[in-house]
Amino acid sequence: LTTPREIGDTINSALNEANRRQENRTKNGGKSLDQLFLFHNRLGSNDQMTKDKELLDSVMKVLQERGKSFITMDTVKQQLQGQGICVPKAINCSLYIDSPYRTIDGSCNNLDHPQWGMSFKPQRRLLPPAYEKGPEKVVRSLPRCRGKNGKPLPNPRTVSNNIHKSLSGSTTQTNEASLMLFQWGQFIAHDIGLTPVSTRTDGSAPECCGVDKYNLDLCLPIEIPPGDDYFKNGTCLNFIRSAAVVSEDCTVLEPREQINKLTSYMDGSLVYGSTKAEHTRLRNGVFMKVSPGPNLPENKNASCTIDHKGEFCMDAGDSRVNVVPSLASMHTLFVWEHNRIAAKLIELWGTNDNETVFQETRKIVTAQIQRINYDEFLPTFLPNETVRKYKLRSLETGYMEDSEYNKSSDPAISSDGFYSFRNGHSWIPNQQSLTGEDGVLQTFNVEQTYNNPHLIFLKNLTGAHAMLRWMASTGCPRSDRIIEAGARDKLFMTKDGASLDLAAVNINRGRDHGLLPYGEYRKLCGLSPLTESWDSLVDHTPEVRELLKNTYDQPADIDFYTGELSETPGINGRTFGPTLNCIVAKEFHNLKFSDRYWHERKPPEGFAPDQLRSIRKVSLASVLCENVKYLQSVPKDPFLSQSCSNPLVSCSDVPKLDLTPWKQPYANRPG
Ligand code: HEM
Ligand SMILES: [Ca+2]
Predict the structure, then answer these.
(1) Which of 152, 553, 616, 634 shows its CA 20 to 30 Å from the CA of 391?
(2) Residues within 6 Å of ligand 1 by CB
(3) Where is this region: Disordered (predicted)?
(4) CA 29 to CA 45: how far, in whole Å?
(5) Which H or E element spans position 52?
(6) Which among 245, 231, 236 is positioned nearest to 211, based on CA atoms?
């Protein structure tokens, strides 16, 4: 077997076999029962680049099995490229230069870099990675695993037990914010980022506590330390490493970088989808698809727990929608809002131009999400001076200056900055409840509701209404280093009692991504550097310093997550410490100023002046009042608990979105 023709045929035959194996890929991914794997990779599918790379690897494997290892990867790649596999795909943006509407996948937002902010593109970094070096040609970017003196870092579960455990048992200390703070946080996180984890080449979940334990490319298992007071001795948490970015010609980038499955722009992708395929599946002409209720539509391919007849797993623009029912309720609210506005525009315009009605509605809903996020949510937990410094609040009048749109900044979420936004895990309540029409509360432990949407189906299909009423009227756990037991011991608890620790997983994830330790991010934020003295931890209380000292070898070793989350919080219980404030603010600053379609930009990307004035009246209160059944009043600021300074106001007094300035489609307006 020497002629090029024979080699070509051999490769083709191996390619056929590899293709056949790949067909089973999605099926294998969907079949997994691993909760954390499903969370990251629900519906299996990966991007074209990853698929191409896996096809290439699979062809190499088949060749090896057939004793044809002498054919080199370069030869195979060349032949595959002749068939359109492993070749960079060009994007043509000519149609989008003056378009008033975003693309679905985020492409062509930045006209100089059409792929920036698109789904399935690499994440950025604020600081370069600190991976452990692995063997050349095998896995080079190993997780960060040693401290400054070369000693192994502490076990992540030990860190979690020492620093993130609630000592007050089951009683949660709440702050002056409401659970809307919690639920908006997760909702908006799911608009901007989802980091997929690695799969085996057949699409199935790696077994990191079993056969794949020593596969350093795929796994970083969390072994439970002896004497743990919740997890059984000798157990292990199946932690799978985040998938590595593959470049378009099928080479794995070094140092390793992570992927974002979603459009990183705050563009309502969790309502509308981040790919054309998702979008088509979710949309119904002018409207978003719903099931009776109206509820979110059914997703027959999703996996969740179904306990009663008539229940189903739900579908939305982000695949994590079924993770907890309060999240699904927030998703439902914005599908209602889309359908409400679309119906009004049809009435106003008397048009049958479905596409314009749909896109204009999507543009309005996206603007509402941006406003609520930047003008209500962020200022609830970021101090005023941070909000001002990073220009997070929207303007009161006029447009964002063209010069403020920073087209040379990559809008991608960053592997370290977005990571910091896990601060919201401090807000996860131990309960999920519904407030009935009569005001009566029904309460469930959160671990009974993970991946189990049954609460949505209670109360004659008005579950989402009842959950939203509950969140607007209940206090949120304090912003601090504590992760409540429902997420720290019982995350994703299955029927047989298996569960995870979200704090330990977060710490491990930071190491998986090769994130530098806490002290380096202090420097990035211009805060005083750490020295070898524990007293240099000036933003930690003496009590917490002591806990850290008992956990880490020296201050320079403290994990980023643990260091920033354990900084002394603000006395109102809503704000965190200075490093966390700085990093989270940087991330949201970049998303705002690198978005060509930011809602305060001039037309065609933005709105006409009278329309923008109307958008400025919108608030979470107005969206709740317009959509939630039997809701007569809301706290003036629904992100805060009701109090003397934040009284209930009647929905009829809440300023609402006035659609009069949309008298006609923008394209047809004079001037
Ligand atoms: C019941 C509520 C929640 C649950 C069950 C939950 C669960 C999880 C899990 C399992 C992960 C993946 C961890 C890993 O493997 O590295 C994750 C990631 C994350 N969570 Fe949450 N979370 C919740 C609420 C929140 C909230 C309130 C926020 C923010 C305010 C938030 C922000 C994030 C972010 C930014 C990530 C990283 C996502 C990525 O890069 O893919 N989560 N969450
Ligand atoms: Ca998005």
Answers:
(1) 634
(2) 36, 39, 182, 185-186, 189, 193-195, 323-324, 418, 421-422, 424-425, 427-428, 487, 502, 505-506, 509
(3) 142-169
(4) 8
(5) helix 48-65
(6) 236
Residue whose CB lies within 8 A of the most ligand 1 atoms, among 184, 190, 414, 422, for a mutation test? 422
Query: Which range, 151-165, 305-319, 637-651, is most confident?
Result: 151-165
Answer whether residue 664 shows pLDDT above 90: no
Task: Mean pLDDT check: name the lowest of 77-91, 216-230, 265-279, 562-576.
Answer: 77-91
- CA gyration radius, the chain: 25
Query: What is the DSSP code (8-state) at residue 321?
Result: G
- Average pLDDT over the chain reads 92
Q: What CA–CA distance (Å, rounded) separates 531 from 519?
A: 9
**Percentage above 90 pLDDT, the chain:** 78
Q: How confident is the model at residue 134 (pLDDT cuts 50, 70, 90)?
A: confident
- Going from the C-alpha of 68 to that of each of 7, 63, 73, 77, the distances in angstroms are 9, 5, 12, 15
CB 578 within 8 A of CB 525: yes
End-to-end CA distance of the chain: 72
Considering only residues 175 and 529, tell me which one the structure prediction assigns the higher pLDDT.
Answer: 529
- Extract the tokens encoding 515: 């994130």
Marked catalytic residue, from 190, 331, 513, 540: 190
Local structure of 335: helix, strand or coil: helix
Q: Are 160 and 146 in contact (CB under 8 A)?
A: no
Nearest to 305 by CA among 455, 426, 157: 455
For residues 144 and 357, give the distance between their C-alpha atoms in angstroms, rounded to a whole number: 50
Ligand nearest to the CA of 260: 1
Q: What are the phi and psi torsion angles at 141 (to 5°)? A: -95, 85
Within 10 Å of residue 665's Cβ, how many Cβ atoms? 17
**pLDDT value at residue 167:** 82
Question: CA-to-CA distance for 427 and 569, rounded, in angstroms?
Answer: 13
Helix, strand, coil percentages (3-state) for the chain, rounded to 5, are 40, 10, 50
Phi–psi pair at 432, nearest 5 degrees: -125, 130
Which structure tokens are listed for 385?
Answer: 């001076």
Distances (CA, A) of 387 to 376, 414, 584, 586: 11, 20, 11, 10
DSSP code for 245 = P
Which among 4-8, 289-293, 564-568 has the top mean pLDDT? 564-568
The residue type at 460: N
Q: Is the pLDDT of residue 667 over 60?
A: no
425 is in an annotated binding site: yes
Tokens 């690897």, residue located = 57
Residue 106 has pLDDT above 50, yes or no: yes
Taking the centre of ligand 1 as the mean of its atom positions, its distance from the CA of residue 181, in whole angstroms, is 14
Cα atoms in the Cβ-side hemisphere of radius 13 Å centred on 88: 6
Atom of ligand 1 nearest to the CA of 450: 5
Taking the model in full, what pTM does it have?
0.95
Question: CB count, 10 Å around CB of 277?
Answer: 12
| pLDDT per position as a tens digit, 82-98 | 999 999 888 999 999 99
Does residue 540 carry a catalytic annotation? no
